[in-house]
């Protein structure tokens, strides 16, 4: 009997988004920290340290704050939030927008694992289910129910396009 390959982890799926970041090094590292922070329930994002950086400082999200803002990330890089924002802007993207996409990808990864929205709300730093709906609507112009049911890899490709390749912003 031929063994089945392991299903891809979150790191495997989100890798194209992390590699698309045009820099600088501190900004790319910050996005990696945000994307790979330990989240119980997402395959590959455990606190074992296999996800590409030391999780000793972060712990798990059980009782810990989800890293979602420029300030949160700047503390772990370490640099000033203004530096991350300005460095990203000089390279044609918005750092805060990249962080919103990472949060959305975490949300969709948990949904794909079968977690109901009510269980995802607090670990990802939302105050209630309505705030998730508002968040998704601001990011996509649709409610969560209106989004297509597609694999996480689809959303990663959309994130790369929207954050790093949005030709509407560049005037092309």
Question: Could you please describe the fold and organization of this structure?
Answer:
- By secondary structure, the protein is mostly helical.
- The protein has 9 helices and no strands.
- It has helices spanning 10-20, 25-35, 70-76, 81-90, 95-112, 117-120, 129-140, 152-164, 167-170.
- Helix 1 (10-20) runs antiparallel to helix 2 and helix 5 (95-112) packs antiparallel against helix 8.
- The termini are far apart.
Taken as a percent bin, the fraction of beta residues is under 5%
Class from helix and strand fractions: mainly alpha
Distance between the termini: 53 Å
What Rg do the Cα atoms give? 16 Å
**Biggest beta sheet summary:** none
What's the count of strands?
0
Tally the helices. Answer: 9
What would the principal axes of the Cα set say about the shape? globular
- Low-pLDDT runs of 5+ residues are 48-63
Q: What proportion of the residues is helical, as a percent range?
A: 40-55%
The topology string of helices and strands comes to HHHHHHHHH
Mean pLDDT: 86
List key phrases describing it.
9 helices, 52% helix, 172 residues, mainly alpha, single chain
